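REQUEST
  id: r-88c1
  op: predict_structure
  target: Putative hydrolase
  payload:
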Amino acid sequence: MTECSKFSRVTQVLFLGTGTSSCIPNVPCIMKDPPTCKVCTSSITEEGKKNKRRNTSALVKIVDQSQKVKNVLIDCGKTFYESTVEHFPPNGINSIDAVFITHGHADAILGLDDLRQWTTHKNNSLNVFLNQETFDVIASTFPYIVDTSKATGGGEVPSLRFNIFENDSVVEVFGIEFTPLPGDSHLSHFGYQDAIDTVLLHRPKLSIFTDFCHSIDHYDLLESLEKFNAEEKLHVAPSFDGQVLHIINGEYTLSP
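RESPONSE
  id: r-88c1
  status: 200
  body:
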């Protein structure tokens, strides 16, 4: 994301989910006797709760040119509803103003129907930004959302306006530039070493890892990254559900 207007700025990023499509805990893991999965077992305890993860998603808070707050949702997967119930109230989130869908997998699109709560009776449509491939998946999965004439009439339908962008384009929303990153060299997602290599290549001021499966323990990774940060003089952190990144005048704070 880049601030393309001196009057628009990103002030907060709320991590609604930080796990893969399967989420954590994996139910068979916590039902196994004796338990063998450290991550899933710890995720249902108070001490290990940062290992509990829903589908990866985030809410970006923007203060636009007119100083109005705009909330941009990134991905709307299977656990979108539960994530908003848990994390919107304590963070004072009462609107969604635009949506980005990064890809057409279940963990990024299967919560789209739940956006009806954010458009019904508000006399407005939500702008959804996505590439053509992702739009085609949504059109086949939710035909009544893309074409409301296909709705059965048995309930309300979210009012969404789809905006298709080219894979190599930059998309401006509320004065902020969003740059999609290509992932053509990978079958699905970056792995841990891929992420580390990218950090070492670009050496950003802050890197936050997300989309974890139950093979990675949050607390072990945190300890490992602290050593990595000291050696490389970088700041790389593992995210967790409910974590908040605050940005003020170009400086950031990350909730522990």
